[in-house]
Amino acid sequence: MDSPRGRIYQMVQVDEGRLALSDSFVTHIDRCLGCMNCMTACPSGVPYASLLERARWQIEENYPRPWLGRKLRQHFYAKVLPSFSRLGRHAKLVRFYQRSGLQSLARGTGMLQLLGVAELDALAPRIESDFSFRHLGEVFPAEGTRRGRVALLIGCVGSVAFAELNRATVRVLTKNGIDVHIPKAQSCCGALHLHGGHLEMARVLARQNIDAMLSPEFDAIVTNAAGCGSVMKEYAALLEDDAKYAHRAMQFVAKARDINEYLAGVGLVEPKRKLSQRVTYADPCHLAHAQGIRKAPRELLKAIGAELVEMPRPDTCCGSAGVYNVVQNELSMKILDEKMGYVASVSPQILATANVGCMLQFKAGMKRKGINTRVAHVVELLDEAY
Amino acid sequence: MNPAVVEQLRKIAGRDAVLDRPEDLMLYEYDAGIRKSTPGAVVFPQTTNQVSQIMRLASSAQVPVVARGAGTGLSGGAISREGGIVVAFSRMNRILEIDVENQRAVVQPGVVNLQLSEHVSHLGLYFAPDPSSQKACTIGGNVAENSGGPHTLMYGVTVNHVTGVEVVMPSGEVVHFGGKAAESYGYDMTGFFVGSEGTIGITTAITVKLLRKPEKVATLLAIFETVDDAGQTVSAITAAGITPAALEMLDGWTLRTIEAYCHAGYPLDAGAVLLIELDGLRESVEEHAEAVQAVCLQQKAREVRRAKTEEERALLWKGRKTAFGALGRVSPSYYTQDGVVPRSKIPATLAHIGEVSKKYDLIIGNIFHAGDGNLHPLILFDIRFPDQLERALAASKDILEYCIAVGGSITGEHGVGMEKRDLMPVLFTQEDLDVMAGLRNAFNSENLLNPDKLLPTPRMCREIFGAARNPVLVQEGM
Ligand SMILES: Cc1cc2nc3c(=O)[nH]c(=O)nc-3n(C[C@H](O)[C@H](O)[C@H](O)COP(=O)(O)OP(=O)(O)OC[C@H]3O[C@@H](n4cnc5c(N)ncnc54)[C@H](O)[C@@H]3O)c2cc1C
Ligand code: SF4
């Protein structure tokens, strides 16, 4: 009972004063995955992403959500996410909580839903014990002939849950002759803020990242998270009215690259090992629909010898969509089950994707279906090939 | 709406399958045309039985009912009378059976057109009707409107691909017309039902033909300096004894607008192009492709290109299929007209449309199923300026009058619906219309099912077009 057309119609009605910021409107906007499938499909070029951000902002400003939920949201967006050390602590807590027996206790009580850590719970594998935060400020030199130099955004939620992925990213880049810098002053990309309707906070973070990572020294600013990449590419629009930053934001956007896009652009050096397995690739929405990147990851997989099989509708949303699987759990699981059916229909040995959120969701999907097909990030597979 | 009726609907279809809050109902007050009218309730049945109970309830409560697929209709077909019940089919969207041996599929009406083809693609099969809205529109809607598409030229419209329907009658009875066999005996009830625009019954299951994908496809883009040359070429191709699978024409202005969206490589300086597709057995396709190319060059085509890869082909079609939407980039509103003229009259009709454009000072893009003579002039205007709306209406009327004058018709595939029913008397005599009304009344005697559509209300019958008081087809671009 939801569609982009209906949402846009309601947005117009809200603007014209025919519709209040009512439960119905908020529900429909909350249910939007933000997957941007509709932008790919729309021939009229309706900028749905910015319409959605505006609606979310209107809701955050004007619609009273239940008190506890609101307080927790504010704390998470304003305090936890922007601050790496705090996030680290948060993650340590989660780790402690996973290892102690508390996890099963809390699961039964629905506490998790409230705290917003449910996705780190049901969906996350055990959080890895070592964080990339401690690598902030480091430089990893290229191996062999140097072919480029990049700044790497290590992400926030991603870097906590998937430190290993960041390490793999660094290894793949350096093995391919790229210097990797991890600028110290970088922060969260702002995606969760932007999608949650906290526009101002997102701008603050954007400026911080521009200051930290825009430098003639770097050929590109690289990320391994599709969500971060698509938001980094939106910085110019986000800061267009900011006299001081508008121009630099444009320069930043010109250098922002998803890791797949970057590697396919510079070309891989000959891999050491061939990945002779049957692999199917699921397009993350924020890569395919928001950034139009579909070929690059497939090319990379083929370049390391994968036997690529296409599932039906590889670019439909898996239902993960940021924190969607937490706030709209039931719908999210319906979407996931359908997607898992597509995956199963081509019986792959590996399900590859290129975004951490999707990986978490797929792992949960495998568990639900009782299958143990491997779920891997493209970068993880590249890493194994070198 | 009477709360007791809403409560009954909930009992029938489930608590979460009925909408009655104003803010939800407003999402069902439109389709892809301009008419708006807010229903009293929307219900999402999941089974045939529920649809039957809904019909019984509606007739005992005397509430009008209208079925709704994806709401992409351009003639107001899925718009409810104020306060009526909309029966929306988005939850009856399952493919019930694929019978590979007999090349049939049985589907629920809410299945999206393109999804059926995608679903059977790995079997080498597809569903032929391909309206440009096929990513969104439902097979239930296609059946009701007897929709066509670019490939109608060779493969025919929806009615040629439906062999059976399960229908819930206004009384609530469930009947079956036709089946899997290609021909039925006695009255051709399936044929009668297809194209009845939801005024006879509500279909809950549809048996359709699946075709084998052709062995070979050739897609050509013939580029012309003038619209007139392109128009002449259309008749020249058929005169050469070749029936392409599709033969579409786009004029220069439309081309440039689409190119900005889809980057298909359409030539920006052309006066018009023809998009020509040939399919069939390898040898015959090659032979025809060469013949078509020769005809085009003879008719002053500047160049004929051929898609080399499946990707190039898909891109050329993407441009054609998203054309209406792409216009949303340059104009706040537009009319999509849907006239038909004999193929031989295409050049003259295009010349006339050019004059109309000058006379009313409005841009008119031309994009159409040239092979069928089915024109879709797109009249651009801005709905915020009433005088523009009026000029657009007048221009549209002018074009339709011309179509009729040269022996054509007022709709090729978008249906009559609400928008053109007042024009029916121009094409049919009172006697013709009486027979049609009698037929409808035999099934839908109280006129509760999709009232106000297709047939003119008696009082309007003799009024013609000049007196038509409502806009033809207005589309608001987003
Ligand atoms: C961009 C665009 C391009 C288009 N291109 C084409 C084209 O190339 N060719 C073409 O023919 N049309 C075209 N159309 C028109 C439209 O898409 C078709 O008429 C389509 O078949 C409508 O399907 P729908 O599911 O949207 O039906 P709706 O608009 O929801 O309904 C249309 C009619 O079908 C009836 N109906 C729906 N479901 C049922 C059911 N289960 N039982 C009985 N009646 C039912 C409704 O009551 C209504 O009268 C286009 C429209 C748009 C917006
Ligand atoms: S972003 Fe995805 S979920 Fe949201 S309206 Fe668009 S297609 Fe639907």
What does this protein look like?
The complex is a heterodimer of chains A (386) and B (478). Chain A is built from 23 helices and nine strands. Chain A has 386 residues and is an alpha/beta fold. Chain A folds into four domains: 59 residues, no CATH class; 57 residues, no CATH class; 133 residues, no CATH class; 113 residues, 3-Layer(aba) Sandwich (Rossmann fold), CATH 3.40.50. Chain A has a five-stranded mixed β-sheet, sandwiched between helices. A four-stranded parallel β-sheet of chain A has the order 7-6-8-9, sandwiched between helices. In chain A, 44% of the residues are buried. About 11% of the residues of chain A have low confidence. Chain B has 478 residues and is of the alpha+beta class. In chain B, the strands form four sheets. In chain B, strands 12, 13, 14, 15, 16, 17, 18, 19 and 20 form a nine-stranded antiparallel β-sheet that branches. In chain B, helix 1 runs antiparallel to helix 3, helix 9 packs across helix 11 and helix 13 packs antiparallel against helix 14. Chain B is globular and about 70 Å long. The C terminus of chain B is likely disordered. The interface between A and B is medium-sized, with 20 and 23 residues. Bound molecules: flavin-adenine dinucleotide and iron/sulfur cluster. The site of iron/sulfur cluster (SF4) has 10 residues of chain A, from helix 1 and helix 3.
